[in-house]
Design goal:
By secondary structure, the chain is α+β, with helices and mostly antiparallel strands. It has a single domain (about 5-235), classed as Aminopeptidase, CATH 3.40.630. Helix content is about 40%, strand content about 20%. It has seven helices and seven strands. It has helices spanning about 20-35, 40-50, 95-110, 125-130, 145-150, 160-165, 185-215; strands at about 5-10, 55-60, 65-75, 80-85, 115-120, 135, 170-175. Strands 1-2-3-4-5-7-6 form a seven-stranded mixed sheet, sandwiched between helices. Helix 3 (about 95-110) crosses helix 4 and helix 4 (about 125-130) runs antiparallel to helix 7. The radius of gyration is 18 Å and the shape is globular. It holds the Pfam family Acetyltransf_1.
């Protein structure tokens, strides 16, 4: 399917028939990766569509392609672009980037003063975020709203998150602060320069977390994987605290 035949737009009430397909794909994708996005019901997705707080991608013939939605925390001070999902048939088509660009644009329109953040385990999503002006940050710079962190309970790595006192986990936190940020071309260039380092550090992070968690729970075994401004303006390696 050609990328030009895929329509990326703000979702509306006419799209609610896609809700079950979207939540089913979210669940199966999280299981395949061994990580979790906060589990959402079809009714929750339907509500986001009705409120105009989500973006959907479909083909010209109406086949569902992808989805992402907006959540607000700490009385609107923080906005999360959550639940990014693309149908397996359309992955590596460039549509994920188009969805992220659209949901970012919508977030800036609806909440112009809010800090926009996200959590990801994927290098590809980190690159897309960097192209938009996001920076990797420590978890302390995210919302401390208990409702947000409660959403992590459906992730298979929740116990690891709690063992780290919610200060770190497999996911990388990224933030866009409209009051204090680098230009997108700067964050994109910095990510390109350090992408190999990120890849190694993400593997190391996973290896160390698993090893530490097994020691705590008494299930330690052979380590797997492994491998060798202003307040928001940090260097990119500052968020790796083990």
């Amino acid at each position: 399917m050609e990328n030009s035949a895929i329509i990326v737009r703000v979702a509306n009430p006419d799209d609610i028939h896609y809700a079950v397909t979207i939540t089913d794909e979210m669940e199966s994708s999280a299981k395949a990766r061994g990580t979790g996005i906060a589990k959402r019901s079809p009714e929750y997705i339907e509500q986001k569509m009705k409120e105009g707080k989500s973006v959907i991608a479909v083909t010209e013939t109406g086949t569902w392609v992808g989805f992402c939605y907006i959540e607000t925390w700490s009385h609107g001070e923080y906005v999360a672009n959550s639940g990014l999902i693309v149908s397996p048939e359309f992955r590596k088509s460039g549509v994920a980037k188009r969805i992220k660009e659209k949901i970012f644009e919508l977030s800036r329109k609806l909440y112009p003063t809010a800090k926009i953040f996200g959590l990801t385990t994927g290098l590809a999503v980190m690159k897309i975020n960097s192209d938009l002006g996001y920076e990797p940050v420590t978890y302390s710079e995210l919302t401390q709203d208990e409702a947000f962190w409660a959403g992590c309970k459906s992730c298979v790595n929740y116990d690891i998150l709690m063992s780290k006192d919610r200060k770190n986990c497999f996911c990388t936190a990224m933030l866009y602060d409209p009051k204090d940020h680098y230009k997108p071309e700067e964050t994109a260039a910095d990510f390109k320069q350090h992408s190999k380092g990120y890849e190694r550090l993400l593997r190391l992070k996973k290896s160390r977390f698993l090893k530490a968690f097994r020691k705590i729970t008494g299930t330690e075994s052979k380590p797997e994987g492994g491998g060798g401004g202003g307040t928001a303006k940090k260097r990119f390696f500052s968020f790796f605290h083990f």
